[in-house]
Amino acid sequence: MCAMKILDPTDEREPIRRQLTPRPEHLTGTVGFLDISKPRGNVLLDRLEVLFTERLPNVEVRRYAKPTFTKPAPEDLRRKIAEECGFVIEALAD
Amino acid sequence: MTTSTTLKPFTLADAGGAEYRFPRGRLALLCFVKEDCPTCRLSMPLLEAAHRGFGDMVDVWAIGQDTLGNAVLVEQYGLTVPVLDDDALGVSFAYDLDTVPSVFLVDGDGNTLRSFIGFGRDDWSELIDELATMTGLAVPLVDWEEYPESRPGCGSRSVEPVISERLVAEAAGSPLRARKIEIASGDDEHEFLFDQGLTDGLPAVPPTPERVLRMLSGTKRDAQEVVAIVPPNLAPATVEKVAINAVMAGCKAEYLPVVLAAVEAMCTDEFNIHGVSATTMGASPAMIVNGPIRERIGMNSGLGALGAGNRANATIGRAIRFVLRNVGGAKSGGTERSTLASPIKFTLAFAEWEERSPWNPYHVDHGFDPEDSVVTLFAATAGPTLVVDQTSTSARQMGGSIGLVMETLAHPRARGSQDTLLVLCPEHLDTITRDGWTKQQLLDRIQEVTSRPLRELMPDEDSGVGIRPEQFGPDGPTEEQLNQLMPKFANTDNIHLVVAGSDAGKFTSVFQGWSSGPRGSMVVSRKIEEA
């Protein structure tokens, strides 16, 4: 399916695409690890969690998983992560 | 055979991704085809034969108009001739093709030596003979008896309606300049428009370049002409930007001239759309259309004229709101600060039923010719408020009823600060005109019936609203001043009367204005320049 193109109806003074959230210099607080439920995503996150615990002992890691990789994360899960975490790392790949 | 022209250079790839540049400084035979065209299919074996016979010295290329169809042709005809992919139709469009197959024999600089469209047995045999002569190679064996004498071609995909609009929109000479936004294939375009804050809370039509181009066909004005500077951001609204928002609102191209004129009217100092948007009182333009364009674009002036169901009424009113919102940046909670606002903030446009009334239509009373098409904007804060009168039998009574309801607008004691829009229904109109009254007599009657002595219009224990005594000096008003009668409106010019509605029903409507005059919003009319 082709992406749809539309013409900007505004005065174009604001960027219209979604912008990346600014990246902070230091990692603090809670980091969510989201497994999208593709095979071996958990392996990647397990290894990352070990490294995080070693190198960033003051950062808390919380694990989450999507019910299935074929659909967007449920609204409740997204809200939970947004409430509980300052950052999120998503394991995408097989 | 046509006179020689120089074909534009291009680069296309085949299905394997190999790039082919044209021209390459040697003879070329280009054949534009699409898979679902029987005449193209008929031509494929001949093109293949030409490639096998002359391919060492001549670039024999098929240029296929859709990727999947190209693969089908290659498989079914066992083609070895390169099949270049013009699925985007950029080359077909640039070559202004109407028909496939289109066949071009071209020299090394891109000049056509021979060309034809469709299928002609003689065209092909002469072409192959000419290639043999030019290259000195043998004429490939073709059983010409298997071929019909001639067959017409099919329409090139580049001239199919929706596709051709896209191609014009994307071409270098396109009138479109607005920033293009790509909505990812996984995203829902309607959700995207909501997410970006580009709609009024209802779904909007995604303004694709094709749709905007079609919308622009509704005007002769240059797409980049600035129609108005739109408050509050004071952003220039070009014809193109207005067209984009008109698409989103659901307009047809023939409505665009009305929208353009309305945007001009809305952005005048007199109308003061900045104040109209920003006021906590909650104002929005109510639009009245007069003149011949009403009929041409199918606006509703009759049954249900102020309500839902008519596309022109609904979308024209919505389009100027979109221009205000998207170009001007007026958004609720931003510079739009209405305490409650009203559904008028979505849309309100209708036509006057001029033919139903013996009086001059609104635009003629305001200096326009009857044959002019005119849009009028009134800053409405509330309404429609009904004048329910099923029993009056004289013009005097009818005018009295309308006046008594009008007196309640804003506050029964409010005097002289507002305009009003009076939408007179046909049955009430008949009651008034049966007595031979003019429009002016009705307006005078409204002023008469609403006239009260100042003493009844001052704040008291029942309500703190009213004309304050200190306005008359430290001692307050004199006895004479207290007895002075004050009508509801500063002048009968502040009552804007139009006729609309169905033949059945005794329900006239009135709309409450905002602050009137140079410090508020004045009613503005603009002639509609038709395409």
Provide key terms for this protein.
heterodimer; A: 94 residues; alpha/beta; three-stranded parallel sheet; 4 strands; 27% helix; extended; B: 531 residues; alpha+beta; seven-stranded mixed sheet; five-stranded mixed sheet; 23 strands; 31% helix
**Rounded radius of gyration of chain A (Å):** 17 Å
Shape of chain B: elongated
Helix tally of chain A equals 2
Number of strands of chain A: 4
Percent of residues in β-strands of chain B: 15-25%
Unreliable stretches of chain B (pLDDT < 50, length at least 5) are none
- Estimate the global geometry of chain A from the Cα principal axes: extended
| Fraction in beta strands of chain A | 15-25%
Enumerate the spans of chain A where pLDDT stays under 50 for 5 or more consecutive residues.
none
Total helices of chain B: the number is 17
**What does the main sheet of chain A amount to?**
3 strands, parallel
Average pLDDT of chain A, rounded to a whole number, is: 85
Number of DSSP strands of chain B? 23
Q: Which bin fits the share of residues in helices of chain B? A: 25-40%
Oligomer: heterodimer
User: Helicity range of the residues of chain A?
Assistant: 25-40%
Largest sheet of chain B: 7 strands, mixed
Cα radius of gyration of chain B in angstroms: 34 Å
Q: Report the average pLDDT across residues of chain B.
A: 94
Query: Which two chains share the most extensive interface?
Result: A-B, 15 and 31 residues
End-to-end separation of chain B in angstroms reads 40 Å
Model description:
The complex is a heterodimer of chains A (94) and B (531). By secondary structure, chain A is of the alpha/beta class. Chain A contains 2 helices and 4 strands; from the N terminus they run E-E-H-E-H-E. Chain A has a 3-stranded parallel sheet, sandwiched between helices. The model of chain A has no long low-confidence stretch (mean pLDDT 85). Chain B is α+β, with helices and mostly antiparallel strands and 531 residues long. Chain B is built from 17 helices and 23 strands. In chain B, the strands form 7 sheets. In chain B, strands 15, 16, 17, 18, 21, 22 and 23 form a 7-stranded mixed sheet that branches. In chain B, strands 5-4-3-7-8 form a 5-stranded mixed sheet. In chain B, strand 13 and strand 14 (235-238) form a beta hairpin. The model of chain B has no long low-confidence stretch (mean pLDDT 94). At the A-B interface, strand 1 of A face strand 12, helix 8 and helix 12 of B.
